[in-house]
Each structure stands twice: as C-alpha cells, then as structure tokens.
Design brief:
about 35% helix, alpha+beta, four-stranded antiparallel β-sheet, 2 helices
Length: about 150
C-alpha cells in the first residue's frame, strides 16, 4: 500500500515548470544577444585574412625579381621601391584596402628591408591594420636554388 507521501509526489508542480521555463528563456536570450557579436568577429577575421593575403601577394611579387642591376625592368631588383595603392571594394561587400609599401635599402647591407601595411575601416568604422615585414637580398636569382658546399 503506497504511503501518503508517494501519492503527493507525482509529476511537476506549476512552480517547477515556470522556473525551468525561465532558465531556458534566459539561456536563449543570452545566445541571441551573443550572435551579432560573433558575426562581427567572423567578418573582421575574414577582412584580416584578406588583408594578410594582399600583403603577402605584394611581398611575393617583389621576391620574384629575375634580374640584378638592370634599371627599368619591372622584374628587376632595382624596381623594389616604395609604393601606395588601394584595392576597391568588391560586390561581396569587402572594404576598401589601402596598401602601403616602405622600402629601406640602408638597414641591411646587400638587402632591402620591405614593410607592407594594409589599412581598412571595418563595418563599425574602426581603423584596422595588418603589417608584414621582410628582407629581400640582392643576390643573383639564378643562384637562388644553389647550395654552397665547402671545397
């Protein structure tokens, strides 16, 4: 025979259901409030990735020189100079990127120090920047894959 206590302990009370509903609602509101911030961070990460790709592309184009000491050729070591240009927005809504290249040929002997910075404004209007730096040696490109072995 069941006791009086077990007869009164069946199911959930209305108060328990309301508390559970309140906890679940607060959790959902927190997730909904967090979603726009997550979207903004994802967009900024995509923009930063694109800016890094643009800076790397500029540096790789400079590293691909094929001639030493021949002025006037776009693929010559002497053509590694400072520059500034912009990348216009595309149809996907990317920002306008401003690329600036600074070249210092006095920092390291027989090499040029190159700094490439990419600046843009994010969707909130905040300025953002990515900067890459490298050294490009003034060595004959024909010897780029050669290995010097002791005799």
């Amino acid at each position: 025979m069941p006791s009086d206590m077990s007869r009164h302990q069946r199911g959930f009370t209305l108060v328990e259901m309301l508390v559970a509903f309140l906890v679940m609602t607060l959790g959902l509101l927190a997730v909904i409030r967090l979603q726009p911030e997550l979207r903004q961070h994802a967009e900024l990460a995509r923009q930063r990735s694109e800016a890094t790709r643009l800076a790397q592309q500029d540096l790789e184009r400079l590293r691909g020189f094929v001639q030493i000491g021949i002025a006037g050729s776009a693929a010559a070591y002497d053509a590694i100079v400072g520059a500034a240009y912009t990348i216009e927005p595309d149809e996907l809504g990317s920002p306008r990127y401003a690329v600036e290249r600074l070249v210092d040929d006095t920092a390291v002997p027989n090499a040029r120090a190159v700094d490439v910075s990419v600046r843009w404004l994010d969707r909130a209007g905040e300025p953002q920047q990515v900067m890459l730096a490298t050294l490009i040696a003034a060595s004959d490109p024909a010897l780029a894959a050669a290995r010097l072995l002791p005799r």
